[in-house]
Amino acid sequence: MYSKQQAKPFHLLPVIIYGGLLVYGTLYPLHDWRVPLETEWRPIFERGSNASYSDIFTNIVVYIPLGFLLARAVISFSPVAKVFTALLGGIVLSFLLESLQVYLPSRVASFLDLALNAMGALAGGLLFVAVRPQGRIYECLLSLRQAYIRPGALASASMFLLGLWGLSQTSPWVPSLDISGLRQELKPLWYTLTQRIPLDFNQMAVYILTIMALGTVGAAALKPGKSAFWWFAVFISAVLLFKIPVVGRPLSAEALAGAGVGIIGFVLLQKLPLKVAILSSIVAILGAVIIDELRVGTTWLISDFNWIPFKGHLTSTVIGIVDTLIGAWPFFALSVLVLHLRPQRPGRLLVWGGIGVFVGMFTLEWNQQYIAGRYPDITDAILALLAWWLPWFYTPLRREIRGHHYPYLKGNLRESG
Fold it and tell me: Cα–Cα distance between 380 and 71 in angstroms, integer?
């Protein structure tokens, strides 16, 4: 359960951070402000008629976390008051941003966006009430966790990482059951099988290395005696199959082949001593990042280095920034894997590891200036650093780190020494 002492300062910080990201994403680019004509205020109070299903879905989804965090921040409130706070906060922020968009010629204000944002914030508030402590859904999830997952914040972070990878594979999460759309999503797989396009071995290698490392993280979260192979294979299969109905996320032969080989590699890693398995997974994540960063793009254009954070990621909606944030998951994975090694001086690791992550990612991005079809960007280096630091911002995990109470991987991976 949450205490009032925990709630006051810290629970507002996620609201401020996520709200700031919404402000940045909604008002980007932050220039060319001008005083609008009186007639330009009308779209705010008019119902939008040209919104696509993708825009509707996006406007709802991006405000769900805000509603969830607002409801979470008001710990001492009743469930009804939590939901009302989430709804009111979403409406106020959305109305302010829609009003400010009138001053930006590159943005379009709409009452429909306001209504959809309010729906998202309301859904987020209801979601928190549903999964809050003492709620039925919470109790059900808690019983499953206690039965299969190790106690402790590090195990929770490990499971969160798997979910984060799943989200990165299925973004923008807009499903479509249209037959022609489903065929379009399967075309890359069919063209590779019929040898119309060659197999991309770099992309396949990224999948292999990634899934090997994710399997190790997942095995670390399970209790002794619980088999990691079958549930992990089912999880990977479910994520890849869900790519088929998702708009813009085709299922490729590289993903299927890489997943198969990666699961086999994970089985082999389970037979290694604990530290060797974790170190191998760290190397696998680093290798996947390097291969992905140095691969050639789909065009012959060469781009200069971009020094403005998130420039080029934000277009007509804020889904670009959400996708970019989730894409930094490998560095969150690195942080979680390193913590499983139970470092004796976590504070120094936080600082020097962060410096290494930022410098390494900056170097890879800088080198993309000489690779065709790539967009070298300071944003990726910044997000890599933030993702590396993310576990340290989780209060229960920070306490585990300081107290050196790290769970062992006994039963799933061999103990060393």
Answer: 31
Residue 96 to residues 12, 13, 224, Cα–Cα distance (Å): 20, 20, 51
How many C-beta atoms surround the C-beta of residue 234 within 10 A? 10
Task: Give the model confidence (pLDDT) of 82-134 as tens digits.
Answer: 999 999 999 999 999 888 877 776 666 678 888 899 999 999 999 888 877 66
DSSP letter string, 354-404: HHHHHHHHHHHHHHGGGSTT---BHHHHHHHHHHHHGGGGSHHHHHHHHHT
The per-residue b/e assignment along 30-42, b for 16 or more CB within 10 angstroms, e otherwise, is eeeeeeeeeeeee
179 contacts: CB under 8 Å, gap ≥ 6: none
Provide the 10 A C-beta neighbour count for residue 10: 12
Q: Where are the domains of the chain?
A: 4-142, 149-403
Helix 201-221 and helix 153-170: axis angle, to 10°?
Answer: 150
Is the pTM above the cut of 0.90? no
Give the pLDDT confidence of 404-413 residue by residue, as tens digits: 555 444 444 4
